[in-house]
Design a protein that fits this description.
This protein is an alpha+beta fold and about 150 residues long. Helix content is about 25%, strand content about 40%. The chain has 3 helices and 8 strands; from the N terminus they run βββββαβββαα. Strands 1, 2, 3, 4, 5, 6, 7 and 8 form an 8-stranded mixed beta sheet that branches. Helix 2 packs antiparallel against helix 3. The longest helix is centred in the last third of the chain and has 16 residues, at about 125-140. It is globular, with a radius of gyration of 15 Å.
Length: about 150
């Protein structure tokens, strides 16, 4: 009986910042894969990296930002890739960014926007992205993040 392979080679990261008025999500407009779509930070895990290390690296490479606090979101983004007939699963991480830190985009993106959760859910293209954003809002903003999800980067 044929099986659909499950691939786990990438990470997803939701960057958040607290302002005086609200918490905002960073979305990036893509130039390469999913051209023109607004998405969170994502990328492949490189040889010798853990998933959380890949998330930190991708955050830095794609935005020039550093996480003040990094958490496992305790959820995986998952989707079916028709061209590979495979299911891809990516662990999701949450990074809290200082409000004054400036985004410096790499060539993979044409724009960035800090937006509230409701606007972010309207901007992202897929139900899986919206589900991740709902989960992150509920577990990291409405509720206090569980301390066991905090990643000690040292």
């Amino acid at each position: 009986m044929p099986e659909i392979p499950i691939r786990a080679f990438m990470v997803s990261l939701v960057a958040l910042r607290r302002t005086a008025a609200r918490v905002e999500v960073l979305l990036l407009k893509r130039n390469e894969t999913l051209v023109g779509e607004w998405c969170q930070i994502a990328g492949s895990i490189e040889e010798g990296e853990t998933a959380w290390q890949a998330a930190v690296r991708e955050l830095r490479e794609e935005t020039g930002l550093e996480a003040q606090a990094l958490y496992s979101a305790d959820i995986c983004e998952q989707f079916y890739e028709t061209d590979r007939n495979a299911i891809t699963m990516a662990p999701v991480f949450v990074a809290f960014i200082d409000e004054g830190d400036a985004v410096v985009l790499n060539q993979e993106h044409s724009e960035s926007r800090w937006v509230p959760f409701d606007k972010a859910r309207d901007m992202v293209p897929f139900a899986g992205h919206r589900n991740v954003l709902r989960h992150v809002e509920e577990e990291f903003i409405v509720r206090e993040a569980h301390p066991h999800l905090l990643i000690q980067k040292n």
